[in-house]
């Protein structure tokens, strides 16, 4: 990773981490709910999705301030999905981001409600963004619903649950992860493009880049569940195999999964080179996704 990318990631992560709690602190609601929301939001994480929004504004030489609210809204939706995914009725995990999961600290009922609030408030954050024109807000929200709802992440989670302990084809696995993981990640790029006023041809390219990066991100996740270090990923390794999950290494062998990951990264980089702007930062982020260790 070049010093420039390292610096970009570190500085933008800090801005996002300073801004995220401000949206929760100002809510006029009970402190116990705010505490449960803040606990998971402040538990760390790579902040990849919000950083991608800011990277797009940077790429189009637009003020990053214009993307900050949407970036935080996406991170809140991502955090809600992790809280719900960890619940006993889903993956039943005790550790997330190196800390006890939300329901272990606050109980199941408050964990469900903290997730619900993070999801709902994220829409309010976009609607109330003072830097974003109304037509952009409408488009941002329409696309967000497609990425995070029944036609996206939630639908993907259901397919994933239904596929457990069944032998899936590669196409079926791809379909699950396109919905469960890739669509929200792709939305981060798309939202950045919309906020930056990118031309329509670029917006369509950003969807393709997001698809390939999202699948690559998931393949790397599957690989890390076998080869990763518990300290780095913040949760036990080997849980996919215990939960009889269908994963890329299981379907393709470890080498096959690594080859597939590289194919998706190359595809993403090809589409990045077709954008109407030079995007060295995005090219480097592709490498980061391919090689991440957490
Ligand atoms: C419960 C509606 C609902 C959806 C859950 C995203 C998801 C769907 C579940 C998470 C399970 C999982 C391990 C998915 C694989 C890819 C993924 C989203 C990993 C976690 O994202 P990171 O690595 O996490 O960006 P950090 O902690 O860095 O933010």
UniProtKB/TrEMBL annotation:
Which EC numbers does the record give?
2.5.1.10
Q: What are this entry's molecular-function GO terms?
A: (2E,6E)-farnesyl diphosphate synthase activity; metal ion binding
Instruction: List the catalytic activities from the record.
Output: isopentenyl diphosphate + (2E)-geranyl diphosphate = (2E,6E)-farnesyl diphosphate + diphosphate
Q: Which cofactor does it need?
A: Mg(2+)
Keywords on record: Isoprene biosynthesis, Magnesium, Metal-binding, Transferase
GO cellular component terms, semicolon-separated: cytoplasm
What InterPro entries does the entry give?
A: Isoprenoid_synthase_dom_sf, Polyprenyl_synt, Polyprenyl_synt_CS, Prenyl_diphosphate_synthase
Q: Name one GO biological process term.
A: terpenoid biosynthetic process
**Coiled coil (UniProt feature):** none
NCBIfam families tied to this protein: FPPsyn (NF045485)
Identify this protein by name: Farnesyl diphosphate synthase
The taxonomy runs: Bacteria, Bacillati, Bacillota, Bacilli, Bacillales
């Amino acid at each position: 990773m070049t010093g420039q990318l390292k610096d970009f990631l570190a500085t933008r992560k800090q801005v996002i981490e300073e801004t995220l709690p401000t949206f929760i602190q100002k809510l006029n609601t009970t402190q116990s709910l705010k505490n449960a929301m803040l606990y998971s939001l402040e538990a760390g994480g790579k902040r990849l999705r919000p950083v991608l929004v800011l990277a797009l504004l940077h790429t189009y030489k637009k003020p990053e301030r214009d993307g900050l609210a949407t970036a935080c809204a996406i991170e809140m939706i991502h955090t809600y999905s992790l809280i719900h995914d960890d619940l006993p009725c889903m993956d039943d995990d005790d550790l997330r981001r190196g800390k006890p999961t939300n329901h272990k600290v606050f109980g199941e009922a408050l964990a469900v409600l903290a997730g619900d609030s993070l999801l709902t408030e994220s829409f309010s954050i976009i609607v109330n963004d003072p830097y974003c024109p109304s037509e952009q807000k409408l488009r941002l929200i329409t696309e967000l619903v497609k990425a995070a709802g029944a036609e996206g992440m939630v639908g993907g989670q259901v397919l994933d649950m239904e596929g457990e302990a069944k032998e899936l084809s590669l196409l079926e696995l791809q379909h699950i992860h396109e919905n469960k993981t890739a669509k929200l990640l792709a939305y981060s790029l798309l939202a950045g493009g919309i906020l930056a006023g990118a031309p329509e041809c670029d917006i369509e390219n950003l969807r393709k880049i997001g698809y390939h990066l999202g699948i690559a991100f998931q393949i790397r996740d599957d690989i890390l569940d076998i080869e990763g270090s518990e300290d780095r990923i913040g949760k036990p390794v080997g849980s996919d195999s215990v939960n009889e999950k269908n994963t890329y290494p299981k379907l393709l062998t470890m080498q096959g999964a690594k080859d597939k990951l590289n194919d998706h990264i190359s595809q993403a980089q090809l589409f990045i080179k077709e954008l109407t702007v030079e995007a060295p930062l995005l090219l480097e982020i592709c490498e980061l996704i391919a090689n991440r260790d957490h």
